[in-house]
Write a structure and sequence with these properties.
The complex is a heterodimer of chains A (about 270) and B (about 80). By secondary structure, chain A is mainly alpha-helical. Chain A is about 50% helix and about 5% strand. Chain A has a two-stranded antiparallel ribbon with strand order 2-3. The longest helix of chain A has 22 residues, at about 35-60. Chain A is elongated and about 70 Å long. Chain B is mostly helical and about 80 residues long. Chain B contains four helices and one strand. Chain B has helices at about 15-25, 25-35, 40-50, 55-70; one strand at about 10-15. In chain B, helix 2 crosses helix 4 (about 55-70) and helix 3 (about 40-50) crosses helix 4. In chain B, about 40% of the residues are buried. The chains are: A mainly alpha (about 270), B mainly alpha (about 80). Chains A and B meet through helix 1, helix 3, helix 4, strand 1 and helix 11 of A and strand 1, helix 1, helix 2, helix 3 and helix 4 of B. Strand 1 of chain A pairs antiparallel with strand 1 of chain B, so a sheet runs across the interface.
Chain lengths: ~270, ~80
């Protein structure tokens, strides 16, 4: 394996990450990684992609795939064979390798700002969820939704304040996020795409936004005002504004306020 | 006042870029990813899907590169 004069391929990076290379190759790859920032960054991107896919997979998306012919029987045969060998059965008993990668990747990805969703609230983990700071919605529960795509209609709205979310809907949002037992005053049930930008009164557009987070609801309000101003003065396309705020409102804030942190303390 | 349920056809709904990228993958690549996510080693995936070991690692590397591009917002897919 020649590594001296070139960068590592995605495949080499992945194989090393997965422990699928021989000891000699692993040493060569790690030596290269020690000196090459570019390959190390790429490695982190691959870890982030693994974390992202794991989240998608957990939603059982692949249930839509046609079954793999015979695979279940072959798998069962392999598992039976594996149980005869302690080392192999231990491996099967630990399907969590990617989960560990997920945890590491989540930390590195947060630093790189690559994940669109930082908080995954598990219903099995309710006690943790009750103290979870949610500052970006779970894109599976809250993808964002808009009803108005017409700039004139949006800019003609006189009342730009968000409508009060009815208690029953608040309760439903809390339940969906697995924080039914959390203190209501700790969160604002927030619109992802604000109605002032054509956002919809729809569960898919609502999420519990922590007041205590640095990137809290009041910071988001600033962004909403800025985006609306830009849309109505013709400096930003309405659908683009809706898309950006729905995809990652923090990234949009950083982009439009040219800052890495909220401008004022809230 | 109960929340108004909007006309779903009129809604513009955004989805996670990783989800879009995953759904756009060829079926075999998705199978490789799914089996890996379930904890299978590369040789086991190769056995289940009747692929060579090299084809499994190429498939996984290719798929993860696509997901990484989607997540980082790089739309210039190759």
């Amino acid at each position: 394996m020649k590594l001296e004069n070139s960068h590592l391929s995605d495949e080499q990076l992945l194989l090393e990450l997965e422990g699928e290379v021989s000891g000699r190759e692993q040493t060569a790859i790690r030596c290269h990684l020690d000196t090459c920032w570019q390959c190390r960054t790429r490695r982190q991107e691959i870890e982030t992609a693994i974390a992202e896919f794991t989240r998608v997979h957990q939603r059982k998306l692949d249930a839509a795939l046609p079954p793999i012919a015979g695979s279940r029987a072959r798998l069962q045969a392999r598992l039976a064979e594996a149980s005869m060998r302690p080392a192999r059965s231990a491996r099967f008993a630990m399907p969590g390798q990617w989960e560990r990668v997920l945890a590491t990747a989540a930390m590195t990805a947060a630093a790189f700002g690559l994940l669109t969703t930082y908080t995954v609230v598990s219903r099995r983990n309710r006690s943790v969820a009750e103290t979870t700071a949610v500052f970006i919605p779970d894109s599976r529960l809250t993808p964002g939704a808009a009803t108005l795509a017409d700039k004139l209609a949006v800019c003609a709205q006189t009342n730009q304040k968000n409508k009060e979310v009815p208690p029953a809907v608040r309760k439903q949002v809390f339940q969906e996020y697995g924080i039914a037992g959390a203190k209501p005053e700790a969160y604002e049930v927030d619109y992802l795409v604000t109605p002032a930008l054509g956002g919809a009164d729809d569960l898919r557009n609502l999420w519990p936004h922590s007041y205590s987070a640095t990137w809290n609801a009041r910071v988001k309000d600033e962004l909403e005002d800025r985006l609306r101003e830009m849309v109505c003065s013709g400096n930003l396309d309405l659908t683009e504004a809706q898309r950006e705020i729905a995809e990652n409102w923090i990234a949009a804030y950083k982009k439009y306020f040219h800052t890495e942190q909220p401008l004022e303390e809230h | 006042m109960p929340i108004r349920v909007t006309d779903r056809d009129a809604l513009a709904v955004w989805r996670a870029p990783s989800l879009e990228a995953t759904e756009a993958l060829p079926e075999q690549d998705r199978r490789c990813l799914s089996l890996r996510a379930e904890g299978l080693r590369y040789s086991e995936i190769a056995g289940v899907l009747d692929m060579s070991l090299g084809a499994v690692s190429m498939s996984l590397a290719r798929s993860l590169a696509r997901i990484a591009r989607a997540v980082s917002g790089d739309v210039h897919e190759t």
